[in-house]
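Data card: per-record layout.
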Amino acid sequence: MYILVMGAGTTGLPLISALVTAGHEVLAIDPDRESADAVRDRLGNIVINGDATTSRVLQQAGASRADAFIATSRSDSDNLAACLLARHMFNVEQTIAIVNKQENTELFDQSGVSVAVSTTDLVLSHIAGALPAHPLLRLMPVRGRGLEVVGIKVPESASVVGRPLRDVQIPYGVQLALIISSSGRTELPTDDTVIESEDEVIAVSPTESTQALWETLTELR
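The structure for this 221-residue chain is written out next.
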């Protein structure tokens, strides 16, 4: 594929390098001379020092034969303008833009940009992947006893769901104090209590057993 990339900064340069490594024909466009030089130093003469929001520069870049145009600058207005110019004047089929401000995403979508990638969504997706969906909540330490009060929410597909507590291997020394259902109903747990998805389990646990308790209640089938 022949791909034009607008912007050779912190987002654009690694993208350009990855596309070249993948075997694509790539041309970068950047108005900043230092950024353009950085592309030349790293990847060779595959860059134009110019403004991709102008038809003259896009024509010089061979936009009429490009399979895709990717805009990665820090200016949402420039990214949108360049994508629309590439699409409507040079008939580039795939236009992809980085959206720096979340509130502008809908505008990009409505304007006909093929793919609008919000930097906010990218950050959130990485956070979501890095953090557990059902985190351990340490509610209160019990001073002088090596104990703590903790809260753990049971995931929908946890292996303990549907099982009575008598069949769940609760770590030694842990006392389950209260179970709060997703509807807000509270129950003092007994051996006959059946764990349901999204139950909040409140327990008094030795600090060294807390992690094992969380693993027991959140392990997936």
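Known properties of this structure: The chain has seven helices and eleven strands. The two ends are 43 Å apart (CA to CA).

See the next section for split statistics.
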